[in-house]
Design goal:
Elements lengths: L2 H27 L3 H26 L15 H4 L3 H27 L1 H10 L10 H30 L5 H15 L5 H21 L3 H12 L1 H4 L7 H15 L3
Length: 249
Amino acid sequence: MSVLSTIYSFAICILLPLVEAASSRRLKADSDSASRRASYRKDLAMLWLMAGAAAWLSAPASLFEAPGSVDGMAWLTTGGAIARWLVLGSALLLAAVMTAQAVYCLFNARFQRQCEAAAQSLKFMLPVGTRERRWWIVLAVSAGVCEELVYRGFLLTCFGELGLAWAWLLSSAAFGLAHAYQGAIAALRAAVVGGILGLVAIANGHLALAIVLHIMLDLLPLAYYRPAAESVEGAAEVSDQVVGVFDAD
């Protein structure tokens, strides 16, 4: 690992969570529509800068190819056909469950309210209104691509000198820390999700499926978080739609 790669890995694992925590505190203190959209734009810029830096540091290697030849996970990477199919099958099952959950939210108001209640701690950052939801779609796709390139592409390779098992664990932990601003439970959940996506990438040999799953996860809030018109957030949504007639992005 080069000196620059080491410094960048430290920045991703330690400094980024601190920056995200400070940004989330500011957004929680003033979470109106304009603040959320500004936060989305900032996150978009940061995501693509992070991915660009990772690609530059990794050149000429491709970040889309997950490392599978490093010692430490032979059960998954060398001759472990059954293990690989189990991992990929589980990934496809996860995709099916997410799709079913999203569809069920659209047609079952009670289930949708349950999912929305479970996400109350994230309400400060979730999109309200058509304009914010459009920004969220762009953000979800960008996060799916860029975070996989950084955490499952760059960090897996950088930490690979420690063995693939350690690289997988450390990159998953770093992914969890990056989401610590959402709370301890959310950080743990993100670390587990990062671990699953890491296994998918390693078993598949590239990041394509992990990117698709990541994007699907980030798009889920659009299915279950739809504030009612009579609520405060719903009033903001109506206001957004009116303003959007005169101030379209």
